[in-house]
Amino acid sequence: MVHLAAGMTIRVPEDAYRFGTGPLTLAVTEVISRGPFEGHEWAELRGHGVREDGTRASRERFAFVRVDRVRVVDR
Q1: What is the number of domains present in the chain?
Q2: Is 69 a member of any domain?
């Protein structure tokens, strides 16, 4: 299982986070909480979305992600 921490960039498929459309790539700035939800481990994160060209969105966002579906991305 992935150890989530500030400073990581992660990718999550659309069906493994709430709420949004398409896969999510997020530069994590804070892990707010982590715990069980609907039979899986989930984490509430704060960070900046990362666009396909590698640039970061200026506005921070929150995401609720299923931890076992998170993949760490090298950026």
Answers
A1: 1
A2: yes
Q: Show the tokens assigned to 35.
A: 């715990």
DSSP 8-state code for residue 74: -
> Token digits for 27?
């530069």
**The domain containing residue 13 runs over which residues?**
9-73
- Mean pLDDT, to the nearest integer, of 32-39? 95
- The closest of 65, 56, 57 to 38, measured between CA atoms, is 65
The pTM of the full predicted model, rounded to 2 decimals, is 0.91
**For the chain, what is the radius of gyration of the CA atoms?**
11
pLDDT digits (tens, 9 = 90+) for 5-35: 999 999 999 999 998 899 999 999 999 999 9
With beta carbons less than 8 A apart as the criterion, state whether 34 and 41 touch: yes
Distinct helix (H) and strand (E) counts, the chain: 0, 6
